[in-house]
Structures are given as structure tokens and as C-alpha cells.
Amino acid sequence: MKRENFQSRLGFLLVSAGCAIGIGNVWKFPYVTGANGGGVFVLFYLLFLIIMGVPVLTMELAVGRASRKSAVLGYKALEKPGSKWHIHGWFCVIGCYLLMMYYTTVSGWMLGYFFKFAGGAFTGLEGEAIDGVFNAMLGAPAEMAMWMVLTVLAGFLVCSFGLQKGLERITKVMMTGLLLLIVVLAVHSLTLEGAVEGVKFYLLPDFQRASEVGLGNVITAAMNQAFFTLSLGIAAMEIFGSYMSKDHTLTGEAVRICGLDTFVALMSGLIIFPACFSFNVETTQGPALIFMTLPRVFVNMAGGRLWGTLFFLFMTFASFSTVIAVFENLLASCIDNFGWSRKKAVVINCVFVLIASLPCLLGYNVLSDFRPILGKDVLDSEDFLVSNLLLPLGSLIYLLFCVSRWGWGYDKYLEEANTGTGLRMPRSRVLKFYLQFILPVLILIILILGL
């Protein structure tokens, strides 16, 4: 069966960036920035994105493009006879399923809030009553199930049309909408009274403030965020490498994907911080920032119903672009490994993901006493396995596979990364030493600190 390809380079870049751009950028990035003193954190984040994110992203794409296959068979095609690197491919598949077991619920929350704002559910509410909307939703499994099921069905419906007609076509529309919305929302936030203070907090490096949090903590948090923002280590990116043409170098494409990803993360901060400072709202709150803090801000704003609706439409696009990208990965794995047709893969995966998403959904109500890992609820436990274990460990394995002589090998990786026109990885001893000895240590640090 002939492997599908992207119709256009723009399609590849938007789909890959759409996979990377998710709730982590828009929800986690601003509150982690807020908790870590603002500007200094952003500075370190950008540095780590260049020295850690870009190289590992090129490696994952290189394995995909050189093998033209999904994770398991990709490793098999490139590994030395008798070696066992492909076992990691199965862990990648498990990681993608685990990610979707909770991501579909959170994506459903975004969709639910979009309809709540559009329908005027927040009009006239104040303070505690606004927080109550989120708590009421968590306590209503049937309502959450409705949004989750809608998300899953819509996701698999898009993927059922194939790569070009489904994923690429829909993502182009969604990502264009997302980028337009984010600019409109940011411009609006910047026009609010007192917005300048928010921008200063966010973008001006203040080492005094960073030292209060502890510079070491700020650096570690920046390293973490830079690493996780690209969803590396569970073959979420590898699959798009397998659909790529050889026209452009992987370093150039990786820089473009990181650029889009960072643009969205930085712009979401420009939406959130000026608005929070304008209405004297705390920015260091965790997940509550999106569902409790920001609705309070929108409700007090002129035209708040419209701005709230647009914001949650943007959030829905950001989360749904990741959902369909990971679904495509799951389908490709089943088609490649088991020889299924796309239709069969869609039906089986859709049923499986719907059932597997239930524990997370029920973790806030029926199963609220169930704390499987380190006293965390179901969603946080699943997220811990993916974010703290599978992503860093998987990235380390991809890295070692590409740079060690026991794996695919440094020279073959470099040749693949530099095939095509565009920005190239330099053939220097310094880079080779960095990738073989220093970067693995940095990733190990992230892994150990995450435990």
C-alpha cells in the first residue's frame, strides 16, 4: 500500500505545529511563567527550546522520514539486525493512547466552555458563582461525557478521510483560525486599562523576582516547559516525518515548527497577563487559571460574552488540533503493524478511546476517591505517566538511537537531517560531542526531577 504524503509543505508545518500546540502552550505556559517570575523564565525557555527542543525534534522527524513508517516499523527499518530498539515503538503507541485517555476530557471542557460563553451561561454571574460553573461541570459525568464523546467522534471522523482530505485540510482551516483569533485576542488585551503592567511582568526579565523563586527552580521549570511543549518522545512527531517530502532539511522545518509553537505560547501570555493585571487577578494559579480566573476577567470586560466565546473557540482549536494529530498516529500504527484498512482502524480505535477515556471523566465524581499514583487523581496520574516518564524517557531513546553507534548512527542521522534545502546541522565535533554526551545528561536531569 502506497504511503500517503502531505499535499503541501504548509500542510506539514501546520499539522506538526498543531500537534505541538496544545493546552500546554496556552494553559500551562502562562501559569508556569507567572509562578516562575515572568521575563527571566521566558528567556531561559527560549534558550532551552533551541538547544534541546530543536535537536530532538529533528531526530524524531528523521526516523520517520528515513523509514517512511510509524514508530515500531520505523525503528525496525533502521536498527541493526538483532537489536531491540523497536520495543520502544510499542511504548510510543501506549503513550499516545494514555495521552488521549485524559486529553479528550480536557478538550471536551474547552468545547463545553465555548458553548457556555456563546449561550450566555456566564452573563450576570459574579465571583464564587463563576467558579461554581466549573465545579458543577466536574460533578456532572453525563455532561462531561457528552463533550468528550463529541470530541472523540469528531476527531476520528476527520481522520477517516485520510491524511490530505481529512487531517491536513481541517488543520489548515483550524490553525489559520487559531492564529487569527490569538492576534485579535492579544490586541484586545493590550488595549485594556493597566495592561502595560501585565506586559512588563511577563516580558521584562527581573532577576530580583526570579531569585525570590530561586534561579535554579526557574531554570529547571524553563527546561521542562521547553521540552514538553513539543510533545517529543512518543512518536507524535515521528509519524509526520514519515509523510514528509525530502525537499527541505529537517533542522529548518524543526525551527519553523518550534517558531509557530512558541509564537502561540508567547501570544497566549499576551492575552492572559494584561487581562489579569487589568482586573487585579492572581496569575500564579494552576489549571484554575483557564476555567475560573479568566471567566471572571471576561465577565467584567465590556463585550465579555463575545471575548470569552472567542477565547474558548481558540482553546478548542488548540486542543482539537492535538487530538486529531495523535489519532492519526494511532491509526497509522494499526494500519502499519496489523495491516488493517483505515476504516477498520477508525472504528476499533474510536470504540477503544471512548471506553479508555471514561476513568478520567469519572475521576472527578464517581471515582473521586481513586488516587492511583502518588495520591494524584486519575487525570493527574495519567498525565504524570505521559509527561514525567514516557516523554523524557522516549526522547532519550530517540536521541541515543540517532547518535550512538549501537543505534542508527550519528552520520546516518545527520545525512537525513541535512537532506533538502534549508538550515543544516553543522558537521562539527562540538555538536557531535554535545548531542552524544551533554544533551542526554540534560534529558536525564528532566526525567529525574520529574519523578
TrEMBL record:
Q: What parts of the sequence cross the membrane?
A: 12-30, 42-64, 85-103, 144-163, 175-195, 215-237, 258-281, 306-326, 346-364, 384-403, 433-450
Q: Does the keyword DNA-binding apply?
A: no
UniProtKB keywords? Membrane, Symport, Transmembrane, Transmembrane helix, Transport
Q: Does the keyword Transmembrane apply?
A: yes
Q: Which residues form the signal peptide?
A: none
Q: Which InterPro entries match?
A: Na/ntran_symport, YocR/YhdH-like
Under Pfam families, the record lists: SNF (PF00209)
Family, as annotated = Belongs to the sodium:neurotransmitter symporter (SNF) (TC 2.A.22) family.
Show the PANTHER family listed in the entry: TRANSPORTER
Put simply, this protein is called: Transporter
